[in-house]
């Protein structure tokens, strides 16, 4: 019952163009949509465009005054984004390259799996935030900026690539420890 009233409050806020409601919907749904798009031949720019279109659809529905949401906002947003993305793929003629679209984006795709994965990503972001320097920057250089060990050694002042690799391993172990001991034990809200 509380969930339903929160959803209603979110929609009412969206209809009033309330910044907090918009930010909440974005925060709770964007990562899920981005995963959907990227995992189905899209880019982050595609995900931003599709999410923006879905927000406009939701905004217009909320403003209509006759819109009755029969599911959670995240389910509705996911559904709209999925339909918009499939339509865009068809228009770009990428649909035929993918074969049977149902094998790529199953109809029975469980929204809870996406929510769980997003929660884990959020927990990992918090764990990375608690990692500290230079580990945080080193892991970002390797995994996000795709720098090789030689570049990292030069950037971080290690004597050679092997020392940088050893430090990366220690940082990963530290991150793993933070993630599993702190967040996987149910302390994700801290």
Task: Provide key terms for this protein.
mainly alpha; 190 residues; Arc Repressor Mutant, subunit A; 10 helices; 2 domains; Rna Polymerase Sigma Factor, Chain: A
General description of the model:
The protein is mainly alpha-helical and 190 residues long. The protein folds into two domains: 2-109, Rna Polymerase Sigma Factor, Chain: A; 113-183, Arc Repressor Mutant, subunit A (Orthogonal Bundle). The chain has ten helices and no strands. The chain has helices at residues 2-15, 19-38, 44-64, 73-91, 95-98, 101-104, 111-129, 135-144, 149-156, 161-183. Helix 2 (19-38) packs across helix 4 (73-91), helix 7 packs across helix 10 (161-183) and helix 8 crosses helix 10 (161-183).
At a glance:
With 190 residues, this protein is mostly helical. The chain is 75% helix and 0% strand.
Strand content: under 5%
The Rg value, from CA coordinates, equals 21 Å
The residue fraction in helices comes out at: over 70%
How many separate domains make up the residues?
2
- What are the low-pLDDT stretches, counting only 5+ consecutive residues below 50? 95-108
CATH class of the largest domain: Mainly Alpha
Instruction: Supply the CATH architecture of the largest domain.
Output: Orthogonal Bundle
Profile the largest sheet: none
- Helix and strand pattern: HHHHHHHHHH
What is the count of β-strands? 0
What structural class do helix, strand and pairing data support?
Answer: mainly alpha
What count of helical segments does DSSP give?
10
Separation of the first and last Cα atoms: 25 Å
């Amino acid at each position: 019952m509380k969930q339903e009233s929160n959803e209603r409050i979110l929609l009412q806020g969206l209809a009033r163009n309330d910044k907090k409601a918009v930010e909440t919907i974005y925060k709770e749904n964007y990562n899920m949509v981005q995963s959907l798009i990227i995992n189905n031949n899209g880019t982050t720019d595609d995900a931003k465009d599709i999410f923006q279109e879905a927000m406009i659809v939701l905004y217009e529905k909320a403003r209509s005054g006759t819109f009755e949401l029969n599911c959670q906002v995240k389910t509705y947003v996911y559904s709209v984004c999925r339909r918009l993305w499939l339509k865009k793929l068809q228009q770009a003629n990428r649909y035929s390259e993918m074969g049977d679209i149902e094998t790529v984006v199953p109809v029975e795709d469980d929204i809870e799996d996406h929510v769980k994965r997003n929660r884990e990503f959020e927990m990992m972001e918090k764990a990375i935030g608690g990692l500290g320097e230079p580990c945080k920057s080193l892991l970002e250089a390797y995994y996000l900026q795709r720098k090789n060990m030689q570049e990292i050694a030069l950037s971080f002042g290690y004597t050679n690539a092997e020392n940088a690799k050893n430090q990366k391993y220690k940082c990963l172990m530290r991150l793993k420890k933070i993630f599993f001991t702190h967040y996987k034990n149910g302390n994700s809200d801290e």
